[in-house]
Amino acid sequence: MKKTIIATLALATVMASPVLYAAGKADKAQGAHKIKTFGIIPKRIGGKWLQDNPKECFTCISQLGYSQVERNDNYGMSPQECRKFLDGLHLKTVIWGVATNDVIDAIDGKYDGLDKSIAECKTAGAKYLACYSTTKKYNATIDGWKEWAAALNKVGEYCAKKGIKLLYHNHAIEFTPIGGVVPYDVLVPALNPRFCNMEFDIYWAAKGDADPLAVMKKFPGRFPVIHMKDMSSGQDRNFEDLGYGILDYPAIFRQCGKAGVRYYIVEHDKPTDSKRSIERGAEFFKKTTY
User: Quick check: pTM over 0.70?
Assistant: First the structure.
């Protein structure tokens, strides 16, 4: 495993406890800087707690020090009520999610779904619209990825004319070689930075056997947003709470300025304890220096 992802196998063996391992990484990477402003995408990390009592969940998120939110839901409130509620907690919605099908429909000239997402994005007070995946039509071949880049450019230009910036979110598939070619290495250069940039998921890049730090160095200025969850030390490399896994975030933070990062968004796809995962995410930012 690459150095930027795993400190060393020896360190992982000695520090069997994830708490000790996280502390060991922080001690090794002491520096003068901290990330003081950070956000969260609550959809999955919030789990049943968010579904059953969104106001309590968001109140806790605010009290823990988060100040930004990425969402595509109003949690039982009207769009205006939700914004007012979150604004009152000093939680600013900075990114709104758009369904992949709405992006694909827009490629074919059907803009109803995309227009609805753009309107929701504006009502929420966000400037970025994030597309979270593609389809087999585009991800099976390198030519397909080139077509997907052209499609995102088209949709991104449409969004730009309406004052919204489009982002594309990766998973592992973008780093799985096709005929020896890594799709991400084709996709990013083909995207016009005026129309589409990247929401870079650090975990999924590592899961796809990429070195996240190397990717950020390769494409400077293309990553306004990073998604942050951690990776377990087991062979399956499952999701882990931020700061309790093997990803070397201090090293990544040191590259974020050149990478163009504006928003640091905490995430966990399958938390066993939503409140604990959210608490640990905030704790990580408060204690981590780089």
Answer: yes
